[in-house]
Amino acid sequence: MTRKQVRYILDVIGEVFPDAHCELTHSNPFELTIAVLLSAQATDETVNKVTPALFQKYKLPEDYLSVSLEELQHDIRRIGLFRNKASNIQKLCQLLIDKHNGQIPKTHESLVELPGVGRKTANVVVSTAFGVPAIAVDTHVERVSKRLGLAGWDDSVLEVEKKLMKAVPREEWTLTHHRFIFFGRYHCKAQNPQCEICPLLDICREGKKRMKASISRKTSSSKKTDEL
Fold first, then answer.
1. 158 occurs within a structural domain
2. Which residue in the list 44, 75, 85, 120 is annotated as catalytic?
3. Are 176 and 16 in contact, with CB atoms under 8 Å apart?
4. Is residue 184 part of a domain?
């Protein structure tokens, strides 16, 4: 894909979602880290229903360690994998106290050492909380990138990230991450993408395939009706 094509994609998605941002409710790096950890295999909407009460009760790493694991599990029970996540949260908080003076570290290398924090979570935290350019590849970013040909169908999440980092100007990494999430979450959905009204249909291989199939079904249906 040429730079001109990449620029076109970024500009179009930017026009559709100019105000894309992190939708996880948080007020500081610590809350953001907990929220992103909780969002694994769960929607931001679900997490945002739990975190207001959670962040009111637990404000510091010490607070999460002052209760039993069972109590913390109960507080986040509406979120998938809550048992494993509760365990990781307490382990993360203990490590923050032992190694980072109770503060969220600002480097990607230190963040990925925290329990429950993978590469995607670290990228979200460094970019959103600390302003470091990064592209976090979640399911939406991956889907949009592959459908538009910015990455290969068989590329791993890491390969998608590397290709986007190479194609997108560094100063636009974080904004592109948020815009791709919005585009995938509200427009280019997994099951029912809005291909018929998509401004990128002309360069989207998935969209062209879906539209062709749709036309074929309508033609077939019309022929059957005529035969009747």
1. no
2. 120
3. no
4. no
